[in-house]
Amino acid sequence: MKRFYKDVSVAEESGAFHVLLDGKPVKTPSRKTLAVPTRTLAEAIAEEWRAQGETVELAQMFVTRLATAGADANRGHIAEQILAFGKSDLLCYRAEAPRELAVRQAEVWNPLLDWAHQNYGARLAVSTGIVFVEQPAEALLALEKAVWDRDDFALAALHAASSITGSLVLALALAERRLTAGEAFAVSRLDETFQAEKWGQDAEAEARAARLAGELAAAERFLRSLDA
Question: What is the pTM of this model?
């Protein structure tokens, strides 16, 4: 859409922060006034609005999109979607062959599964191949608690990170500063990186990967802004 504002500012009201476009607050898709819990997050949103040119590219404003998703969140629905990634976590499905890839997966992924066990009490089962593996009920309950302990804005970022990486463990590791966005993305792309090493890069796949890496970096920025 065409840019319809000149000035972007941040205002505080009753402990919440609003982004103002020519003095009028940004609205969510459900037409609620967007109110975020930290000034740092509000400034990050404002920066995206200031960066727009003659047209407003909402699809590229990932911090804003996460904020509005958090503000409009159906908490139960989004938590259920996040937990689905824990039930079929990428890190639990290993290659049967080649051995080189299987070894690389074990070396990189096992410490993160150990971390999830130590940090949350969630010991996830590991399998080879693509056949679905049923995870222990106690592990899923532990992950459920880890998810539900977060506020709606953090849930929005956790959902984005899980969707990009295919892993709730990686999303939690990003949220807890166990991994950076760059590290989490690289860990989630072990298989693709291995294939590229063997067969070369695909331009279309590279472009998609770059876009997803950028979105994950925005999710990390969003999470850190919540902590500020």
Answer: 0.95
